[in-house]
Design goal:
2 copies of one chain form a homodimer. Chain A has 10 helices and no strands. In chain A, helix 2 packs across helix 3 and helix 4 packs antiparallel against helix 5. The first copy, chain A, folds into 2 domains: 51 residues, Arc Repressor Mutant, subunit A (Orthogonal Bundle), CATH 1.10.10; 144 residues, Tetracycline Repressor, domain 2, CATH 1.10.357.10. By secondary structure, chain A is mainly α. At the A-B interface, helix 1, helix 6, helix 7, helix 8 and helix 9 of A face helix 1, helix 6, helix 7, helix 8 and helix 9 of B.
C-alpha cells in the first residue's frame, strides 16, 4: 500500500476513535492519550500524526464534514437528473440530523466542536469557516430555485437559508427522545412544503 | 436573613459560578472543585449544598431554565393584554437565543447540558423532561392560536411546535459569528410571519 494512503488511513482511524470518545464520554475527554487508547495505537504514534490535541480535533471535524458530504452526494445521486432543489435540500438537511449511526457520530462531533469553539479562537475560526461554507452551498441552491421559479421571488435567499439551517435544531429533540425520527422528518417536509409551495 | 433564603442564594451563587466555568472553559471543567474556586467558596461548602457534581449541574440547569422563564414572563408583561400569540412566541423564542449576556449564559448552559445528557442517564431524563415541558407550553399556545383563528387550522400543532423549537438552531450561527443578531431576528420573524399569515 502506498505510504500516502496508509498515512491517510491512520489519521481516519484516529479521527473515528476520537468521535467514539466524544460520543461516549464527551469531547473534553478526547485527549491525545485517551484517543490513542481507544484507537489501539500508541500515544507516540498519534503524536506522529497530530502534533497537538487541537490539530487532532480539527482533523476529526474536517473528516466528519467530509463524511457528511459523501453521504449527501450519495443521496443526491439517487435523485432524478437533474435533481429537484427541494429533494437536494431534503437530503442535505436530513443527513445533518442524528437519524442513523453515521449521521449521529458526525452530528455529535459537530455539536461538541461548536462548544469547543467558544473557548478556542483557532477552533472558532475553523468552525465558522466550515459553517459559512455549508451555508453558502445551501444559499446557492435557494437562489437558483428562486431563479428557476421553484421558490417565490418574494422570499429572501439569505433568510430562507438561515431558516433551513435551523432545522439542525431538531437535533436535541431527537437526541433526548422528545420526538421520534419520523416526527423530525415530518417537520423537515412541512418546512420545505411551505418554502416551495407558497408562491404568493 | 431567614436561613431558607440564604440557602437558596448560596445555591444560586454556585450555579452562576458553574455557568461561568462552563462558558469560559467548557462544562467538563465544571467540577465541584473548579466551581468552588470560581464562586470564591470552599470546596467543602459547595459539597454542603450539592452532594455530587451531577446534583450541582442539575440545579445549575434548572436555575438557567427558571431565569429564562423569568425573562420571558417579563417580556410577555410588556405586550398588550391579552398578548397576541405571535408576540408571545417571539418573546419565548428570542429569549432562548444568545442575543444578550444573560441569554447567552443560559443558552450555553443548555447546549452543554444536552451534550452531558448523551453520557449520563440521569441527566438525559432531566433534560428530556425539561425540553418536553417547554415544548408542551409552546404547543398549547399554537393550539390556542389555531382555535382562535390566528393560525390556519390545516397546520398540525405538533409539527409547528417542533419547527418553532428548531429556531434555537440559530444558536451556532450566532455563536460562531456566521450571522448577525439582526439576521437571526429577521429569520424568527419570517418564520412567524409564515406560520401566522398563510391561512390557505
Amino acid at each position: 500500500m502506498p505510504k500516502q494512503v496508509d498515512h491517510r488511513e491512520r489519521r481516519e482511524t484516529i479521527a473515528r476513535a476520537l468521535w467514539r470518545v466524544a460520543e461516549q464520554r464527551g469531547i473534553a475527554q478526547a485527549s491525545v492519550r485517551e484517543v490513542a487508547q481507544e484507537a489501539g495505537i500508541s500515544h507516540g504514534a498519534v503524536q506522529h500524526y497530530f502534533a497537538t490535541r487541537e490539530e487532532m480535533l480539527a482533523f476529526a471535524m474536517d473528516f466528519a464534514s467530509e463524511q457528511t458530504s459523501l453521504r449527501v452526494a450519495e443521496g443526491v445521486r439517487e435523485l432524478g437528473n437533474p435533481p429537484h432543489p427541494r429533494d437536494m435540500l431534503r437530503v442535505m438537511l436530513t443527513e445533518m440530523l442524528p437519524l442513523h449511526p453515521d449521521a449521529r457520530a458526525t452530528s455529535r462531533m459537530s455539536a461538541a466542536y461548536v462548544l469547543e469553539a467558544l473557548h478556542s479562537a483557532n477552533i472558532h475560526t475553523r468552525a465558522r469557516d466550515g459553517l459559512t461554507h455549508g451555508r453558502d452551498l445551501i444559499k446557492q441552491i435557494v437562489r437558483q430555485a428562486i431563479t428557476d421559479g421553484h421558490i417565490s421571488p418574494d422570499r429572501d435567499p439569505a433568510t430562507e437559508t438561515n431558516l433551513l439551517l435551523t432545522l439542525t435544531g431538531l437535533t436535541p429533540l431527537i437526541e433526548l427522545g422528545v420526538i421520534e425520527p419520523q416526527e423530525a422528518l415530518t417537520a423537515v417536509d412541512q418546512h420545505l412544503n411551505q418554502l416551495f409551495a407558497n408562491k404568493t
